Amino acid sequence: MLSCLDLDRAELGVLLTDDARIRELNEKHRHKAKPTDVLAFPMDERGAGPSGVRLLGDVVISLDTAARQARQRRRPLLDEVIHLLSHGLLHLVGYDHRTDAEERRMNEAAAALVAASKQPPARSRILSAPHARSTLTSRAR
């Protein structure tokens, strides 16, 4: 999803939680005393970490709500979570859905991110990161 947004040097935090915790966050930050499916907490737009990586912010997803929505939409929970992650990520980079036009634009972008998430990573990206392999799972030599 980050590559699709041309954000290869960016990162975000993702918290998968329950309705009780997301309700607390929703009440504290949005003054809405109810659970929601996803919240996004953007960092400062200039927010780059010490290594020059852009820190986008955090996405919080309620797995309780995601599970209910997945059942209603008759799709797997993972597909719902991926959809919610794309939605939260788009909020982190400045998308919103206050108007019908903004909502259409955001829905189109979310669909593109979901589609991108189902594509295997580019072969060159895999080959360019030889140190990405964990020593704990490497075969003994």
Report on this model:
The chain is of the alpha+beta class. The chain has one domain (10-118): Collagenase (Catalytic Domain). 44% of the residues lie in helices and 16% in strands. The chain is built from five helices and three strands; from the N terminus they run βαββαααα. The chain has a three-stranded mixed beta sheet, sandwiched between helices. Helix 2 (63-73) crosses helix 3 and helix 3 packs across helix 4 (100-117). The chain is globular and about 35 Å long. The termini are far apart. 19% of the residues are buried.
Spatial ordering of strands, largest sheet:
1-3-2
The ordered string of helix (H) and strand (E) elements is: EHEEHHHH
Number of strands: 3
Radius of gyration: 17 Å
Low-pLDDT runs of 5+ residues are 123-141
Fraction of residues in helix: 40-55%
What structural class do helix, strand and pairing data support? alpha+beta
Major sheet details: 3 strands, mixed
CATH architecture identity: 3-Layer(aba) Sandwich
Broad CATH class:
Alpha Beta
Q: Can you tell me the number of structural domains?
A: 1
Please name the CATH topology.
Collagenase (Catalytic Domain)
Mean pLDDT: 85
User: Beta fraction of the residues?
Assistant: 15-25%
Assigned CATH superfamily = Metalloproteases ("zincins"), catalytic domain
